[in-house]
Specification:
- It comes from Sphingomonas aracearum.
- This is UPF0301 protein DVW87_00490.
- Pfam families: DUF179.
- The protein is an alpha+beta fold.
- The protein has one domain: VC0467-like.
- The protein contains five helices and ten strands; from the N terminus they run ββββαββββαβαβαα.
- Strands 1, 2, 3, 4, 5, 6, 7, 8, 9 and 10 form a ten-stranded mixed sheet that branches.
- The chain starts with 9 loop residues before the first strand and ends in a 15-residue tail after the last helix.
């Protein structure tokens, strides 16, 4: 297991034919990955009909000047639990740094800060997360399932959710139209 590459701060891109419909065309920002497992936040799909203002209303927070940004489907685990992936220029009581590339917060203080105009300069909100147990992601990386690429700020904040999967492959020099739905064996 010494040759395992930990993927914190990377994006996982679902390969065509991943075999799990919950992850078709998924883009996952890996926020923690070590020998114990991994956690990531899905950033490739917005939840239809749910915007940031409606989420704030559930917490009785006035949106102030905050934009009514889309809320992302972060993953199938705890789909009612919220997370904010954001720039490293803000930190709260539970904020974790993700390889110096972005930060992750999961408490209501970041929502209040954004609504008050005192939060991170760049952010996105997601409900739920993707999680892997010990060795699970490492095993999936060895099969035809995921492709990893460096997590960049532009892909995280400047590309619409529905365009991230294709844009991420293109930024890695891969035309997603040419990807096969299964892996071959030599």
């Amino acid at each position: 297991m010494d040759d395992v590459q930990f993927l914190t701060g990377q994006f996982l891109l679902a390969m065509p034919g991943i075999g799990d419909p919950r992850f078709e065309r998924a883009v996952i920002a890996v926020c923690a990955h070590d020998e114990s497992g991994a956690i990531g936040i899905g950033i490739g799909e917005a939840i239809a009909g749910l915007g940031f203002h409606a989420l704030l209303k559930q917490f009785d927070i006035e949106p102030g000047d905050a934009p009514d940004a889309p809320v992302h489907s972060g993953g199938p685990v705890e789909p009612r639990r919220g997370f904010v992936v954001h720039s490293t220029d803000w930190g709260g009581q539970d904020t974790i740094d993700v390889a110096g590339r972005w930060a992750l917060s999961g408490t209501v203080d970041v929502l209040r800060a954004i609504a008050e105009g005192k939060g991170p300069s760049r952010w996105l909100v997601a409900l739920g997360y993707a999680g892997w147990g010990e060795g699970q992601l490492d095993e999936e990386m060895g099969r035809h399932g995921w492709f990893n690429t460096p997590g960049t700020e532009d892909l995280l904040y400047a590309v619409d959710a529905d365009l991230r999967w294709e844009s991420a492959f293109c930024s890695a020099g891969i035309d997603p139209q040419l990807l096969a739905n299964s892996a071959g064996h030599a």
